[in-house]
């Protein structure tokens, strides 16, 4: 019995060891995403989330050549739709060519849902519940955003409890709170945001997104109601001409005397992403390419009224698990929900800004809530591989006051 316990403990430790390869490592053999497009105006403004999810699931099967019947389970991060988008997810799976014997569910950890889905699948593989799975994410903010995403009423006692009441603050107000409390100036926020656009435009120009982005052919409807088929190939919220000076002219979006504007907040957007995971031993058996290892994951709670500080707490927690310090990470993929919170998190942890979001982030690319965490896995892995670097960290802030972080290693 104690031998078995030791054996299991050994496997867990191996999984969390950076720089080591073990047959039981959970590895990533595919990480793909759709373009991220502007909500209500972009390429997917007339596209339902189940279509975006089906497109990325189908591409995962086609590009890897895996038999979809071998994929035991799929988890999909999805934030806004009714019933968590569970029915749409099953519809997407079947439409994408998966057999009826396969299964799927959705997960909602708000803005970190896509990353959470990847972690749940990695855990299920690690503990032997499944052999092969997909962690994915999808969101059509165009079709799901707005008051319908909130319950019509709350319990009086709970919603009068201050910390609970803070969970209901608009996200833009939490951004203002972070800027004010920690003195993140408008200038710093605008400079960070202009850089996000510049880096994303540069990455597209140099083809650095080609490996992770799949083209999606959709039906668009014009103002006259005419339908046409369009193949959406690239993120369409990026504004390469953005400068700190042009951003300085924008009015605050959430409070009259605030700092957060349409230019230094993440964009309302639409998109999907999917990550195929299995044990290293399974990937070898199936002769699938090992792109990287999903090494560790952690979450941390923070005050809901400054939810954007989440990465400053989740990153040290996940790094402690794997015995790394801040400087030993090669690339950070930090969600840019708002420039205020991204700047705060980077400065608080003393992260070298040159290591942060080398292909831009949600301010330029967009932030389709449920999709973003899985999108970050694809963006980070392809960048680690392109640059020959090894260790990457993903981090997210989470709307009701949490942070999430994961460590990935390129093969
Ligand atoms: C845990 C989490 O992750 S929380 C985060 C969850 N996500 C959110 O809360 C979404 C946050 N973002 C938003 O709510 C919205 O983007 C808002 C309210 C900030 C702005 O919404 P909109 O007003 O619809 O944005 P829109 O894209 O139209 O921009 C407004 C204007 O700002 C200007 N603008 C925006 N970006 C730029 C830029 N980079 N450079 C110059 N001007 C810009 C433009 O003039 C634009 O108008 P135009 O496109 O017609 O020229």
UniProtKB/TrEMBL annotation:
PROSITE patterns assigned to the protein according to its UniProt record, in alphabetical order: THIOLASE_1 (PS00098), THIOLASE_2 (PS00737), THIOLASE_3 (PS00099)
Start and end residues of each Thiolase N-terminal domain: 26-281
Pathway: Lipid metabolism; fatty acid metabolism
Keyword Lipid metabolism applies: yes
Catalytic activity: an acyl-CoA + acetyl-CoA = a 3-oxoacyl-CoA + CoA
Active site: 111, 367, 397
Record-linked InterPro entries: Thiolase, Thiolase-like, Thiolase-like_sf_Thiolase, Thiolase_acyl_enz_int_AS, Thiolase_AS, Thiolase_C, Thiolase_CS, Thiolase_N
Compartments (UniProt record): Peroxisome
SUPFAM superfamilies to which the protein is assigned, alphabetical: Thiolase-like
Residue ranges of domain Thiolase C-terminal in the record: 289-409
Major place of residence: other
EC number: 2.3.1.16
Domain of life: Eukaryota
A GO biological-process term: phenylacetate catabolic process
EC category name: transferase
PANTHER family: 3-KETOACYL-COA THIOLASE, PEROXISOMAL
Family: Belongs to the thiolase-like superfamily. Thiolase family.
Protein name: acetyl-CoA C-acyltransferase
């Amino acid at each position: 019995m104690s031998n078995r316990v030791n054996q299991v403990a050994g496997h867990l430790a191996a999984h969390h060891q950076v720089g080591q390869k073990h047959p039981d490592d959970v590895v990533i053999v595919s990480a793909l995403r759709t373009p991220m497009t502007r909500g209500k105006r972009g390429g997917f403004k007339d596209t339902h989330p189940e279509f975006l999810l089906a497109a990325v699931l189908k591409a995962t099967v086609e590009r890897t050549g895996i038999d979809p019947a071998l994929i035991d389970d799929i988890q999909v991060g999805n934030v806004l739709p009714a019933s968590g988008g569970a029915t749409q997810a099953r519809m997407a799976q079947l439409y994408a060519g998966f057999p009826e014997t396969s299964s799927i569910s959705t997960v909602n950890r708000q803005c970190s849902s896509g990353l959470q889905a990847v972690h749940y699948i990695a855990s299920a593989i690690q503990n032997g519940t499944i052999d092969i799975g997909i962690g994915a994410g999808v969101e059509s903010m165009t079709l799901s955003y707005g008051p319908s995403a909130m319950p019509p009423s709350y319990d009086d006692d709970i919603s009068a409890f201050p910390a609970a009441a803070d969970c209901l603050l608009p996200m833009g107000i939490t951004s203002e709170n972070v800027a004010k409390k920690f003195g993140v100036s408008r200038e710093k926020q605008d400079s960070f945001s202009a850089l996000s656009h510049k880096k994303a435009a540069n990455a597209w120009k140099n083809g650095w997104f080609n490996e992770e982005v799949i083209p999606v052919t959709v039906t668009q409807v014009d103002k006259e109601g005419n339908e046409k088929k369009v193949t959406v190939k690239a993120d369409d919220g990026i504004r390469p001409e953005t400068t700190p000076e042009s951003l300085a002219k924008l009015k605050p979006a959430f409070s009259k005397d605030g700092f957060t504007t349409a230019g230094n907040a993440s964009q309302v957007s639409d998109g999907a992403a999917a990550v195929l995971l299995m044990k290293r031993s399974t990937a070898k058996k199936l002769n699938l390419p090992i792109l990287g290892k999903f090494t560790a994951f952690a979450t941390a709670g923070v005050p809901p009224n400054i939810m954007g500080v989440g990465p400053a707490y989740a990153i040290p927690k996940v790094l402690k698990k794997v015995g790394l310090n801040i400087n030993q990470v090669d690339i950070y993929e930090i969600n840019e929900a708002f420039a205020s919170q991204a700047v705060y998190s980077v400065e608080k942890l003393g992260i070298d800004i040159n290591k942060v979001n080398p292909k831009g982030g949600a301010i330029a690319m967009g932030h389709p809530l449920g999709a973003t965490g899985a999108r970050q896995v694809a963006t980070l892995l392809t960048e680690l591989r392109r640059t020959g670097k090894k260790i990457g960290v993903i981090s997210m802030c989470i709307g009701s006051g949490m942070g999430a972080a994961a460590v990935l290693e390129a093969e």
